[in-house]
Amino acid sequence: MIAIALSAVAPGFALLSYFYLRHELEAEPLGYVIRSFVAGAVLVFPIMFIQYAFEEEGVLTSPFWKAFVATALLEEFFKWFMIYYTIYIHKVFDDYYDGILYAVACSLGFATLENFLYLWVYDSLEIAIWRAVLPVSGHALFAVAMGFCLGRAKHSARERLWLFLAVSVATLMHGVFDYILLIEPTNKVPAVLYIVVLWMVALLLVRAANQSNRRQFK
Q1: CB 115 within 8 Å of CB 12
Q2: Which SS3 state, helix, strand or coil, does residue 175 take?
Q3: In the predicted structure, residue 4 carries a pLDDT above the cut 80
Q4: Predicted confidence (pLDDT) at residue 132 exceeds the cutoff of 70
Q5: Transmembrane stretches, by residue range (predicted)?
Q6: Distance between CA atoms of 189 and 181, rounded to whole angstroms?
Q7: Distance between CA atoms of 91 and 156, rounded to whole angstroms?
Q8: Structural domain harbouring 115
């Protein structure tokens, strides 16, 4: 059980550490990063309840609607809402990369608790490996796109547009990922390839956010 617990939480903390260290300006206060992580974890239970209600009522159960609405839109909107009201509106959110860091922290809080509950039920190290590669890293990568848009929103005259894009782009990326898993439940290759592409996009967005910081703050 200890091995399962460690394998459940280790990917989330490892990814959060990686994105925390990629911030090229002064380090963000750990208290706010942890708060974002905990805020994301808190979202697991209400979202699970809503998704359970959808399943029981037979609502949004086709692969497309389940992937893009019952899962992606529901989860990404709640994460966006939590980030906006716990971090975005505060002074600590003051540079382009902050959006990525706090969005990743919130998303990994959600993914880590979700992963722990899933592995607690299935109790399998093999499943733990696949979940680290796919859902946990996926949540972090969707958050990079959301956070990049949030960082732009904070410094743009078109704030509302960037805030809308933060939700919609993350939802689209998440929906495609879930749809691939639903239509190819036994073949993990398409999902892995998609994650590789998302990593490439995420690294470009991280670089772009840091470059924007260098131009504006140095």
Answers
A1: yes
A2: helix
A3: no
A4: no
A5: 6-21, 33-52, 64-87, 99-121, 127-149, 161-183, 189-209
A6: 10
A7: 16
A8: 2-217
